[in-house]
Description:
Number of strands: 2
Strand order of the largest sheet: 1-2
Strand content: 5-15%
Radius of gyration: 24 Å
Number of domains: 2
Amino acid sequence: MKGLKRQGSTAEITTNGLRSYKAAMKELGNTEKQGIGRWANNQVENSHLPFRRLERAMLWFRQMKSLQKFVSVYANVHNHLNLKRHLIDRQSYKTRRSAALAEWKSLMA
């Protein structure tokens, strides 16, 4: 609400059907600009998905130290084995993947 008062009016404000939003819009005088629909707010909600996915993954770790330890190892493994398949042809991918796995096996032995 403070943001709308500071930034000014917009063409449409997308919310879900909560009554509290309706009351706030009435207080601001923007009731006719409120867009309510079953899937109208999906674009806004989906913009948070990458952050929420990371947040959910971090819940498994009780201490920040164990999370940092895991992430440092995971980053090395991911960088080594992630070959960006969508950027190269199949034969090159298979060759690079075989080389990466062979190197990984030699490091683990």
